[in-house]
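To assess whether ligand presence alters the predicted conformation, the chain was also submitted together with iron/sulfur cluster. Input:
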Amino acid sequence: MPIVEPSLVEVQRTEQLELDGIDVSGDWNTFLRSRVHTDLDLKVLEWVRSQPQGETISRCWQCGTCTAGCCMHTDFGLEEFNPRYFIYLAQIGYEAELRKYAETIWRCVSCNKCVERCPKGVKVEEVVHSIGSYLEVTGMAKESPADRFDRAYTENLLRRGVLDEAALFQTYERLEGRKTPGRELFRLGLSMLLSGRLHTGPFAHRTRGWGKMRPVLTRLMTEDLRRRRETARGPPPGSGP
Ligand code: SF4
Ligand code: SF4
């Protein structure tokens, strides 16, 4: 097999070497640097497996059927979005490689084609999201635009128990630090109003009894995030048996 990665090759040059009358001087004595990784950590696999979304990860036998049918990978040509590879990296605990995909992994559009096709019954879409969550709760992933939208969406929904599209748009603009030109904003607002999707201000819907529900939901979400962060980080040093 040809060596295709020059940086992995360490050349040891031999000058004026003659064997049986034949000059064999040159770069014949080459070695491959070690490719053994010692920085693997199975914590990622254990964490993903412990999540309701990720418990099927260990069933994966790396056939690649999910990636072959994945719409992001094939139809949209995003080659680096490779669910089989994400699962592989999580299975062997190769965090350093996995973190390179911390943003890409959220490009999944939840079409579930992978789940339909997986011969081992892996809930691929859920597992992929679970791996993404691991990168997020351990702070390996920087907050992406998708994360900021998620934050804006959650804040918005918690406020009245129903989505206010205009307020969501404003919050997201603030988080992204951008400002849509007034004319564009007017055109967007008008089209939303005419299509009956502008539920804001006097048109806003409300969920009855939301005042009681909101603190319960907020507490549950905070508690869930805290638990996920703690389990991902592992026990504090010195607390083992
Ligand atoms: S199709 Fe299923 S078994 Fe095959 S690589 Fe994907 S998740 Fe693993
Ligand atoms: S659910 Fe996500 S990972 Fe699965 S095929 Fe669709 S885009 Fe790909």
